[in-house]
CoA-binding protein (Streptomyces boncukensis), 1432 residues
Amino acid sequence: MAAGAYEGDRARVRGILDAVCAEGRTTLTAPEGRQVAEAYGIAVPAEALARDVDAAVAAAADLAGPVVLKIVSPDITHKSDAGGVAVGVEGADAVRAAFHRVVGNARAYEPGARIDGVQVQRLLPAGHEVIVGAVTDPTFGKVVAFGLGGTLVEVLKDVTFRLAPVTEAEAESMLDSLRAAEVLRGVRGAPGADRAALAGQLRRVSQLVDDFPEIAEVDLNPVIATPDGTCAPDVRILLAAEPPRERRRYTRAEILTTMRRLMRPRSVAVIGASNEEGKIGHSVMRNLIDGGFRGDIHPVNPKADDILGRKAYQSVADVPGEVDVAVFAIPAKFVSAALDEVGRKGVPNAVLIPSGFAETGEQALQDEVVRTAERHGVRLLGPNIYGYYATWQDLCATFCTPYDVKGGVALTSQSGGIGMAILGFARTTRTGVSAIVGLGNKSDLDEDDLLTWFAEDEHTECVAMHLEDLKDGRAFVEAARETVRRKPVVVLKAGRTAAGARAAGSHTGALAGDDAVYDDILRQSGVIRAPGLYDMLEYARALPVLPTPRGDNIVIITGAGGSGVLLSDAVVDNGLRLMEIPDDLDAAFRSYIPPFGAAGNPVDITGGEPPSTYEATIRLGLRDPRIHALVLGYWHTIVTPPMVFAELTARIVAEERERGNDKPVVASLAGDVEVEDACAQLFARGVVAYPYTTERPVAVLGAKYRWARAAGLLGR
Amino acid sequence: MAAGAYEGDRARVRGILDAVCAEGRTTLTAPEGRQVAEAYGIAVPAEALARDVDAAVAAAADLAGPVVLKIVSPDITHKSDAGGVAVGVEGADAVRAAFHRVVGNARAYEPGARIDGVQVQRLLPAGHEVIVGAVTDPTFGKVVAFGLGGTLVEVLKDVTFRLAPVTEAEAESMLDSLRAAEVLRGVRGAPGADRAALAGQLRRVSQLVDDFPEIAEVDLNPVIATPDGTCAPDVRILLAAEPPRERRRYTRAEILTTMRRLMRPRSVAVIGASNEEGKIGHSVMRNLIDGGFRGDIHPVNPKADDILGRKAYQSVADVPGEVDVAVFAIPAKFVSAALDEVGRKGVPNAVLIPSGFAETGEQALQDEVVRTAERHGVRLLGPNIYGYYATWQDLCATFCTPYDVKGGVALTSQSGGIGMAILGFARTTRTGVSAIVGLGNKSDLDEDDLLTWFAEDEHTECVAMHLEDLKDGRAFVEAARETVRRKPVVVLKAGRTAAGARAAGSHTGALAGDDAVYDDILRQSGVIRAPGLYDMLEYARALPVLPTPRGDNIVIITGAGGSGVLLSDAVVDNGLRLMEIPDDLDAAFRSYIPPFGAAGNPVDITGGEPPSTYEATIRLGLRDPRIHALVLGYWHTIVTPPMVFAELTARIVAEERERGNDKPVVASLAGDVEVEDACAQLFARGVVAYPYTTERPVAVLGAKYRWARAAGLLGR
């Protein structure tokens, strides 16, 4: 149990669950559920279990005031449907009548049902009806859920999820994560809810399912939340038929040791190297050589003596010295046998390019390869991948073509097609890359191993990952949280929608999780979720270029009023804040711009201004310590042509960075085609700039802000 | 009144409103509101006005059952705040007590208030609380609003608007436009609402405000909607202090006559033409000549005999023959005098490039120009614009540079900066353009005039408009509806967000409408709203390339499973539908793809396939009449390189179009940089294709579908 976790009465719950199991049941009765809740300090209304009508009358008298009667039967799950509930009953006669009615209805509904009695419960006061629950997600395990009750929210699907157990702060963040969060604070004169009590409820439920993995589901629906506390009149608990499977986990040190040898190898063997053009084993050899890899390259092929001028070996066993990586370029059916030799040689990493495994239905073949690898402690990348690039090593272990623009972005993709898009995009935009890695079937190495490495890798400043599923959602979240503290992680989760999720299923055979769960938990892990492929690529390209903002005050400086309006729209759309300009700063801006220009924010310097106006206002924006980020809107004119704007902006930004005024600057260039070159020049000199769009520069700035917040570098 | 409109008792309402006016009031009392409602058949609960306590007791007895008592006073607007409401009162004693309490509270709350009595109203049964209202929008005039009542929806802002009056079909569409629309149909066993009665209520309220322009606001909050009908216990009606200003309107014939001469001129005069490089009057002359305009170009300049080889005139009066357009390139202060000469010459159109009018605070100068123009019947484009292009006339009446790619897109922008972005984007993508028009301050000609023209213009296949405000929302909607029947209209409305709207205010001095109203009413008019500048440009470029779909069945054919998942996501995001593939069609696809490929939808032909597999499956997709649109996902491989894919796809699409199988085809190309050329080739040959993105091709297809639906070419 984590330090500071909520401590429930575990022994009492253990006893109840064991008793339920002993009866072969997976559903707890209401009184059992209530006892479990009490053991974890979850507030439930005063009540009694009445086994006969006199006991019910006595119990109602003890409770004083109106009560609710509910049938108690392990055989009746939906009490209301069975007519087994009577609400607002008051007085001995009414209780007596209600008892008989409830029991009679239940008997008629389910003739053979065992009836343990009737719950007599104090009627709760009016309040907000909320839902608190926990489920077992196939990707993330125990997950706690929170929503506002009632038909409307059921229709609008306004619910939020967190990994269980939640801390107090996380529980409170759930209250604020609903679209209708305001309601809980009290609106239009309606009272709010006791937020601390609600957060406590969430914390206790989450701890309960964490302490008892066999609890598959908890449902407190509704929880009545008033300004004075919370109370759960119905506690529904389901047990799992079988315990979840544990997945093999490696320690951080183990992961780093093999990842270091994979990403910075000194010696690479190519299993199935070939002299024959068109073969994958040829392309891989050619790319390793043409890419300029500075370590040893050992072709392995029993039928050749020499491949592309390098001595070829019969078997990897014959290769002299240590080998860090074996790249496989042989048909699927031969992989396991060759892997056995690789394992015996003590090679720590196998890169399995071949397809023909789980993705084509050959799960057994893949399982065999995994077993062979585990026997020798070899870690596997793939199978069914294009390979990988480690640009700072000049390593191109792929059948694609080398990529040589070294930089700070590490990109991974689950799909080969997306990998090719990454390569093409990077090449055309000259994106500086530290690694591109194909993950394919993820039979072993996956996103969490790579994140663990990229967090350490000093060349990597930003990680971008395309994924369709996660083998182990918790391991991912753990690795992501650790990495996000140091560098931004962008995630494109494919299969977001129901239709998309179906396609993911048919593609990888993996069950894609429900997107609502993914969305909340990825957010919780601090990664930046890209809405689409192109956004992921642009974020990856631009994030390392932008310095980290030190505060929320954004100022737009624009030569085109029209761009100013659109840039303002984009600022709000991205959850950013336009600075309220103080009077002295407003006056300072006004001193540079024509009298009919608009100060305030956007600062509209107007269209006909010379370079000196751009220069003066941009410099002011960079120098004033109250401003934290600049969004520039350029308008192509003869007075200030595109390359003049690019040159002056890049120069001022560089000069001010020298002086320590290091702020993110993004720009939207509206103009004729020359603005494209101007943007390329600006990008190369540290200003994130795009032509013909006001949305993209602000979206990138928004992504940087989201990361800065997640990394704790800004408030909230 | 339109045919089929709801007919209320206008005389009765006229009498009530006149009486209210006569008293100098702008707020109707509850009984007055109720009478107005009754005159328009809006259901209100049975009630009586009791002037004393005995009358109240008698009225309650007549109504039988519990009643509500409400104070009636012209001086008390918020009855609840005044303690002037008592709910659920039953029995003579209780009514007596409640009457005294309500009157006493009101007297204490507002000592001088005139008290007309107490409304005694039947207590309504429980039902859905909805809000029906009407407001006077500064842009759109009378607008009817509908939402679900209660705190939650107030927090979530789930309301919808339509121009008043609404037809029955429009009223019904409002019920379905709420995010929580399901609620009204009844969910989770809760009863639904009487939809016909609700729609009728909306229709009647909308007709009321249309019939009586002086009604500024109607508020029925709540309306109680049950399965048996609707009822409005509170009717609040406010009158406008002054009547709205009428704007000068031109007939369709008048608009077309001048627009034809503007967009297809035979003779253009340049007021302020100049030989001096760097002057706008020089650039305009140079561009008219270099652009290859085939009509007459007449420089006007009192200080020159000859400009760029053309005879210059002292005054436009001296120009021989008729002149269709006078382009102004002189400082703002000289415009009015020169315009007077232009008017006397009988020139129908003045294109006012100069700035220095309303946008710099010189509203008076602009008003003077408008008055001069109206005196002569000259229509004005601008001021404060870059000018305009009419490419099919080789006309470049701007200070920018000529554009010569003729095609089907007409683009307009309110801002000069956005106009420059349009030009640059068009040039770099070789977008075929019919016109680019700057609207600037819109002192006269605006979007509705242009829409009216573009609807007729045979060269224009698609219209894209950037706008910050609308001078006359109703005229726009009217023109848009008419145009959308024939061709798609894309709108980028800037100033969507609160921050954006503020910036729009400071830019044009125009009051930007609330975006919720804009959004609903633009949708109602059938235009496609672009979420950002780049989207508008891409939609404009691509929509004319795509044929119109004839049904909803979309099939994805992909070589990259990873793209298939992302394309599926995009299909759902854009409100499109993946076809459920019938068994025979599934079998037909399967016959072409490897056994481990996935049929269903997406059809995953797998990555290593030769051109023949793409060819066979695409052809099948085009030929099968049950499929209506194709989304292709290409994966760069050695077996099927990008240009091979492009060539085969373009060829098959062309062949099948020849055979009458004319369906929209969009493609996402994932690969190395060669895919960029492949996309350009595909685009040029009728397939909308983009590299490195799965989102954009589907977004464009979605835009085409939205238009097809709005134009009535598809169901719904």
